[in-house]
Amino acid sequence: MYRRLHKVSGRPFVASLLRETLPRRVYNMVKAFQDYYPDQFAYCYGCGRLNEHGLQIKSYWQGDESTCTFTPRPYHIAIPGYVYGGLIASLIDCHATGTAAAAAYRAEGRPMDSQPALRFLTASLHVDYLKPTPLGVLLELRARVQEIKGRKVVVAVDLSAQGQVTARGQVVCVQIPEGMVLENAG
Amino acid sequence: MYRRLHKVSGRPFVASLLRETLPRRVYNMVKAFQDYYPDQFAYCYGCGRLNEHGLQIKSYWQGDESTCTFTPRPYHIAIPGYVYGGLIASLIDCHATGTAAAAAYRAEGRPMDSQPALRFLTASLHVDYLKPTPLGVLLELRARVQEIKGRKVVVAVDLSAQGQVTARGQVVCVQIPEGMVLENAG
Questions:
Q1: What angle do CA A110, A96, A45 make, to 5 degrees?
Q2: Best residue of A34, A53, A68, A77 to probe chain B, by most B CBs closer than 10 Å
Q3: Chain A residue with Cα closest to B170
Q4: Contact partners, residue A69, CB within 8 Å, separation at least 6
Q5: Is the bond preceding residue A134 a cis peptide, omega within 30 degrees?
Q6: Contact assignment for A51 to B129 by CB distance below 8 Å
Q7: Residues ≥6 apart with Cβ < 8 Å to A23
Q8: Which element (helix H / strand E) includes B125?
Q9: Nearest CB to A80; choose among B93, B122, B185
Q10: pLDDT in tens, B135-148
């Protein structure tokens, strides 16, 4: 049941339906990392729930790994039949920064809706494209935290299609410095 | 004049106007690397001139470096006021693969509209985000070929905003294997 809800909740409509109709305690069980971001951090093109043009990815713990699923749109093409590498980089990037935030809360032993809010940006992104990723199927991302040290979290991500790992990423995430969000922007 | 045309031709409408109205010999002087891609390679979300949903970036030689300019859309946000890192990775990726193709033609001493067509995919992508990239201004990318060996071209890319380098990438590009384009896809 959890697994099923978590899969469909990647779609904005279903996510909002769940948020509005489920009792708070039950909804908290299916909330994604990104659903906890404070509003001013929720406009990211890759993972912001408030960016209506964006990808709106959703990430969840599954034991010590975090997972995320995404079906590229028909126009996310590299060459016909295969997924655009920039989209793959974007998915890996945002799934990693979300995982970094969730891991930082875990490391502090507190829930993601507690204060102060923790949010991470990317310091460096590396992606190895191991084989072409077919377009038209669900992609699955699995991330593992490799290191947490101070404000830095290093996350490794595998991206799979039809059970085969097609891309592998490593993302160095750093906690957003205070005062970096422009008050009058966005 | 060349510089001015090259800047505006990043916009699809102007590019198509130029293509349709300029004499062939003059148009060839302002054609971008991506304008030479054969149709089946021109659907890439980042750089395909035939992908109407895509970024449609345009790259040009400027001496031994290649250049590309792009103004992110208002929704290409990381946090309000700053450009989304996945977009930056996408721009670096596609400018690098375009540069790799152009460099391979140069190395063979033949023009980009000669046969066989050369087109490159990304084997690995590395991006260091040096500082936040402001949203709402023109971004400039400059690429240098670091290595050409067999079917592999390594390209380094700097991305700047308002004269400051904000991100630095290295892309390992490989020539697309024959037979990789699915005949019935796309």
A1: 105
A2: A77
A3: A126
A4: A7, A10, A138, A139, A140, A141
A5: no
A6: no
A7: none
A8: strand B120-129
A9: B185
A10: 999 999 999 999 99
For residues B64, B65, B66, B67, the Cα torsion angle rounded to the nearest 10 degrees is: -140
Give B93-114 pLDDT, tens digit per residue.
999 999 999 999 999 999 999 9
pTM of the entire structure?
A: 0.86
Chain A partners within 8 Å of B123 (Cβ): 128-129
Q: Helix H segments across A1-142? A: 2-8, 12-21, 24-30, 85-108
Whether the CB-CB separation of B57 and A162 falls below 8 Å is answered with no
Number of C-beta neighbours around residue A30 at 10 A: 20
Instruction: State the complex-level ipTM.
Output: 0.85
Task: Report the candidate in A56, A83, A66 with the shortest Cα–Cα distance to residue A139.
Answer: A83
Identify whether the C-beta of residue B133 lies closer than 8 Å to the C-beta of residue B139.
Answer: yes
Residues of B whose CB is below 8 A from A182: 80-81
**What are the domain boundaries of chain A?**
61-180
CA distances to A78, B64, B82, B85, B100 from B182, in Å: 12, 34, 38, 30, 22
Asked: is A61-180 a CATH 3.40.50.10470 domain? The reply is no
The reply to whether residue B124 touches residue A123, judged by beta carbons under 8 angstroms, is no
Q: How many CB pairs under 8 A join A and B?
A: 151
Q: Is the dihedral of CA B46, B50, B52, B56 positive or negative?
A: positive
pLDDT per residue over A56-68, tens digit each? Answer: 999 999 999 999 9
Dist. CA A69–CA A162, nearest whole Å: 12
